[in-house]
Amino acid sequence: MSSLEELRAERLKKLEIIKTKGHNPFPVHTGRTCDCATAVNDFDVLTGDGRTITLAGRVMALRGQGKLMFADIDDGSGHIQVLVKHDNMQTDDFALFAETVDIGDMIACTGILALSQRGEKSIEAASWKMLAKSLRPLPDKWHGLKDTEERFRKRYLDTLSSPEVKKRFETRARLVSALRRFLDDTGYMEVETPMLQSLAGGALAQPFITHHNALDTDMYLRIAPELYLKQLLIGGYPKVYEIGRNFRNEGIDVTHNPEFTMLEFYEAYADATSQMAYVEQLIRTVMMSVMGTSDIVHEEETISLAEPFAVISFKELFAEYADMDDPFGMPEDALLAKAHESGVVVKKGEGREKILDGIYKKCCRPHLSAPTFLVEYPKAFSPFAKEKENDPSMIDRFQLVIGGLEIVNAFSELNDPLEQRARFEEQEIKRTGGDEDISPKDEEFLEAMEHGMPPAGGVGVGIDRLVMLATGTRNIREAILFPTLRPRE
Question: Distance between CA atoms of 270 and 240, rounded to whole angstroms?
């Protein structure tokens, strides 16, 4: 078997042959008159007209020898067979094709459409030209890329060699479009807020830090767009949303990537209860639109989105799955013992809410397969959520879990600027105690709130996890085209 270096050297020789014959192997113009999908779908019309067309695409297969060769080309819209007959084109053109074309090359073919002897829709090439000479071979057609990390590093080869992977990201694109369509149709306005921020606020996470040379100041890649979107509510926009990247300087696992895509939307004069009903409608409608069914298969289990979503309190969840009847009132030593028993690593300075969250993720969340809203969280779980009116120790928040994946986080937004300032100060105390995942006090946001912020319901939807759910994948890196990877050594 030839080495990669030997194969590349052979292709470089073929490249030189094309040049010495007076042809540009990387021309500006393709001359394409229609795509492959149109040629196949409108085959009867085009053959009836007997018109000459020019198709272009990547050579995915080559076979035949002597005076008849076959090539399968794919331009991304679809594929078609090319019949390369010695009798149909000039001798020099045929010889150059036979001598220089490899699988992976981009070519253009001009001719008429016709059925092959086996009845396959084809184009009979009267002429051809090289559009881009491939200097490296593609992965084996039948086996593709076997090394998982290599698939992620070379996603372009992954999508070329695996129709399933290619379809997955087409599904992702349709899902994002469907989300936009649903929000637009229900009166939301799409906006853009800064990704480069002077303060990294709006969530509990560690930021990535960079430096702006001209201003000579440190800046942060945003961990959330929340505080800017709320300022737009203050500015008179009643319903806003943003789909964009967030960046959190955290570990990588099957549900976390440091760079990820979120949808956040906020509605003035709404609350968590009304947004819960809206979220259920959004998820059901979007998934049905994209998948064509209300049943999805995740980790070999069929999950129905047609039935009303279940609702359970955070406290009830611990009682049912973690054998903790009073998780919020447990003595600290008992809570730490339960965390250790559950395999939860507790870092120095972490508060009760972090420990409880760790136990929840280990013991409770994996059991939540059917769509389930989690409600009634202790106040310490979010510095931006309103207290429940009947119990100030709890916040008006919900999360949506489907297939064991946290898909949505939402709450009634705190709009009391004095209470928000007090919450920020509590966060600063936690930072002093060693908790690095805090939201810093943002004076500009507090000033905006003092002009009057309407009551509102805010929602965050994890796009990557929703794609995982829609496509039945178990690792978030399968749902992101170019996930974060450790640099090659």
Answer: 12
Same domain for 116 and 181: no
Q: Is beta strand 196-197 parallel, antiparallel or unpaired with respect to 301-304?
A: unpaired
Query: Is residue 424 in a domain?
Result: yes
Cα distances (angstroms) measured from residue 355 to each of 336, 361, 378, 381, 484: 8, 10, 13, 11, 27
The residue range of the domain holding 267 is 155-309+370-478
* Beta bridge mates, 54: 110
User: Bridge-partner residues for 260, per DSSP?
Assistant: 246
Whether pTM > 0.85 for this model: the answer is yes
| Whether residue 166 sits in one domain with residue 96 | no
pLDDT in tens, 304-353: 999 999 999 999 999 999 999 999 999 999 999 999 999 998 888 788 88
Q: Is 96 strand, coil or helix?
A: helix
79 lies in the same domain as 169: no
| Domain assignment present for 188 | yes
Q: In terms of DSSP bridges, do strands 189-190 and 196-197 run parallel, antiparallel, or are they unpaired? A: unpaired
334: CB partners within 8 A, 6+ apart: none
Compute the distance between CA of residue 453 and CA of residue 230 in angstroms, rounded to an integer: 8
CB atoms within 10 A of CB 187: 9
Query: Is there a contact between 448 and 234 (Cβ–Cβ < 8 Å)?
Result: yes
d(CA 119, CA 268): 61
In a domain, 250, yes or no: yes
Q: Count CB atoms within 10 A of the CB of residue 246.
A: 23
Q: Is residue 15 situated within a structural domain?
A: yes
Nearest 5°: CA angle at 76, between 73 and 81?
20
